[in-house]
Write a structure and sequence with these properties.
Radius of gyration: 24 Å
CATH topology of the largest domain: Glutaredoxin
Number of strands: 5
Shape: globular
Number of helices: 8
Structural class: alpha+beta
Order of helices and strands: HEEHEHHHHHEEH
Largest sheet: 5 strands, mixed
CATH superfamily of the largest domain: Glutaredoxin
Strand order of the largest sheet: 1-3-2-4-5
Number of domains: 2
Strand content: 5-15%
């Protein structure tokens, strides 16, 4: 009995030490995960280019970078909440849009957005919203939907000759490919992918995005 009683405190000490080590291990892994979610310094210039389109003030405290595909259903689904958050935190948050094409008509859709932007900066965002609205008509098609895109440009009163000149131009292809390569370098593999002040948002959800924005504002 005495021998077993003497062992009890040692056993409790051992269990306590193991609990402390387990806690330290969990904290270490959590810190490592946080560090891994941040964009490495050498890749930070790929996150926002000098000519990357932005919605919101340049001096906003929080920058949300979205790698998106106009043909992506998830991008379309989150768009209303994204705009709601921009309105909710007006003046404090800016959205930077980067292309990451994954579908058959992604490039033509991007060309349509760029063609609209050339005829007025605000038209970029109107066309983006319009393509999301019309996505069920043209998305998930394996044949080029250029005629539909030209029709959407006509709906918005754009100069169709200029749209025709831009929609499949080398400059658009180069822009979209640069965005895609930047995304790949940053570990993007699907859309939408968000970065909030340089930290990748994982897992993706509206509540997680709002929480990340609020956390960045509170820092």
């Amino acid at each position: 009995m005495t021998r077993q009683a003497n062992k009890a405190p040692l056993l409790l000490l051992a269990l306590g030490a193991l609990a402390v080590l387990a806690t330290l291990l969990v904290l270490s892994l959590a810190n490592r995960a946080t560090r891994q979610s941040a964009v490495p310094a050498q890749a930070s210039e790929r996150l926002v280019r000098a000519d990357s389109p932005a919605l919101g003030p340049d001096d906003a405290k929080v920058t949300v970078v979205e790698f998106f595909d106009p043909e992506c259903e998830s991008c379309r689904a989150i768009e209303p909440d994204l705009i709601r958050l921009l309105d909710q935190y007006e003046g404090q948050v800016r959205l930077v849009a980067r292309y990451f094409p994954l579908h058959a008509n992604s490039l033509l859709a991007a060309g349509t957005i760029e063609a609209a932007a050339q005829q007025g900066g605000e038209l970029r965002w109107r066309m983006r919203d319009y393509l999301f609205e019309k996505q069920p008509e043209w998305g998930e098609q394996q044949t080029p939907q250029k005629a539909k895109f030209l029709g959407y440009a006509q709906d918005m009163g754009l100069d169709l000759a200029q749209v025709e000149e831009t929609i499949e131009s080398a400059s658009v292809r180069d822009l979209v490919e640069r965005d895609r390569q930047d995304g790949l370098a940053l570990g993007v593999s699907g859309t939408p992918t968000f970065f909030v002040n340089g930290e990748r948002l994982t897992p993706l959800s509206v509540s997680a995005l709002e929480r990340a924005i609020q956390d960045a504002l509170n820092r």
